[in-house]
What does this fold into?
Amino acid sequence: MKKSVFSVLAAMAICAGANAQEIKEDFKPNELNQPGQEYPMVNSQGYARFRINAPGAAEVKVSLGLGGQGGTTLKHLGDGIWEGTTAGPMDEGFHYYHVSIDGGIFNDPGTNNYYGSTRWESGIEIPAHDADFYAEKNVPHGNVQQVLFWSESTKQLRKAFVYTPAGYGDKKNQKVKYPVLYLQHGWGENEYAWSNQGHANLIMDNLIAEGKIKPFIIVMTYGMTNEGFRPGARPAARPAAQAAPAAPAAGQAPAARPARPAGGMSMMLNNGFETVLVDELVPYIDANFRTIADKKHRAMAGLSMGGMETHSITLARPEVFGSYGLLSGGTYSVEELEGRKVDYIFLSTGEKESPAQINAAVEALKAAGYNAEGHVSPGTAHEFLTWRRALYTMAQGLFK
Amino acid sequence: MKKSVFSVLAAMAICAGANAQEIKEDFKPNELNQPGQEYPMVNSQGYARFRINAPGAAEVKVSLGLGGQGGTTLKHLGDGIWEGTTAGPMDEGFHYYHVSIDGGIFNDPGTNNYYGSTRWESGIEIPAHDADFYAEKNVPHGNVQQVLFWSESTKQLRKAFVYTPAGYGDKKNQKVKYPVLYLQHGWGENEYAWSNQGHANLIMDNLIAEGKIKPFIIVMTYGMTNEGFRPGARPAARPAAQAAPAAPAAGQAPAARPARPAGGMSMMLNNGFETVLVDELVPYIDANFRTIADKKHRAMAGLSMGGMETHSITLARPEVFGSYGLLSGGTYSVEELEGRKVDYIFLSTGEKESPAQINAAVEALKAAGYNAEGHVSPGTAHEFLTWRRALYTMAQGLFK
It folds into this structure.
């Protein structure tokens, strides 16, 4: 008798488990898909379903799987079509991935590409329950301006994106000046990340439209310290005055190779990015945009590696930035900040990263009298939804 | 004797032919490659060499070949590496392509992607002998601004890129106003094409730096009349007031499908783009940028399908645009323009397209008293080098 009871309980438990795992067939195209593409798809539970046309392939895998970890092996449906669904729901938000065809790495032709891990990867978005704060709405929108500035230290024409809030161009506002946040991407990403993956411009547009913050400018530039990995770069033709033997002459193939920039590398490994950002980009921005060009109205923040850059540059150049933000990018200790005047310090992380470390650091900074704020993104790891939420929170604490 | 003489002559001819076909081993990485990628490569003669890692594949092809036509079949070098070189030199300039792995279509992981034929394709650049006019130089650079504007006719948040010339942001220029060129992409392309493939911003920067033109603004927006093919679009969250059952609610997967926009399609097929451009975008630009908002200082031009759009819109709305440009996009007849006041008409084509037709149309317009100019791009077909050269020429004829 006992035995059968246990069997029944076991069976019930199994059924309960099975029910919990049941996949709802309400899949819709991933919102990042290329125009007219049905796959990849996402359902209301956060499962992702991939479909790849790979005739003749022996094995097709997608680098995404349960909770964004591991991968998903697709099955051949026939006629060269391979399909697979993640073993479980993915974390909410944006995920990078790629496809493996018998070991060859390609992007999914169904979706758009986003620069991460030093290559253009495929992107999929699991709609977040709180996606409204970065939704495209019929509110006044700021612009994201591509600027090209000459960097004398690297002898390169470099790119930055500058978010200017709605109204920046209005005739009536031509005397208005704005604070500036310098916002850095993570390792293997580039200056496109905060707009394309992070929706920084939409987060700002919505915060400003709701009256939650006063408008400010955001500057996003390429911060990888290895110049070899300057994404999307076309070799810069040096000005005649600085022409080197390696410089391209009209009609010849440009001599500069992305992987081996003449001169750039050694300088870059020697605090090169600090020089580009602080001594070249900041002056360019202050000269070409209506900024309040002082420490109190200039902040630096970054995610992951960009946080580490923020940490070292803000400590090395205390006269330049008044507010600091480390997004999944470490912490400041009270000792490091000894005797420094800092207006605002923001430290954040995903709940699946290191909340205890961040909370402890924030408490220590507060105890030492600093205006510090922490943020932990619920249910997310080292990915972009964590950083969208961090920017949303940090923006409301900056420049008070 | 004669026979042997002929043999010698024949042999000499063959050798001459062989010499002409000899491939110089001076291949360099394609200048559009992703960071750190060696392949695809291009040599000084314009041959392209591709290398793809596709273990287990039975056939690997690249859609580019001799003169940009046909394709190139790669050979297996071993270890899953496939390599192939075009059968001949390619035309100078930019070419779209993709890779076929046993019939499955993917992009080349080695190079960057460019939106063409309604998908993100791989891109390769055969350096042109006259590439200097769009080279990145240490001259003052204008900005390319992404603007998001609400389109009431399509109930969508739409994107445009606005080139503002160097100095637009300078404090001392805040009273200066500029003429505006509305510049359209071709079929299957999007609003990124004129900047990414066309280098419109660099062409303008260099022309202005050399004093060859007075600065003007260029506006580039998405002109495909099928809203289903709005590239890179994230479904627009409608304002609450306009929320439809199909609109996404917070936390749900966006309901809008790129291929089936709610409502948009029918309107788009009914002169939808004319409404978006003339009645929605032009007023937005005039309200948010320092434009000279009159017909004489407003031009419209486009390439290929964008030329056809320019042709129909300029004829339908003669009060809006003072100058017209059709780049590989047809011609205007004297009859069509009967009684119209047009400041400048530019018609262009590639030498491998229809020069006779363009030259005849220009002569007829001149004979009828119009200020018409023609341009034929030497040695090029229906591709972007043709249009870079056309913009370079047209820009010097506009707004005189």
Observations:
- The first strand of chain A starts at residue 28 and ends at 29.
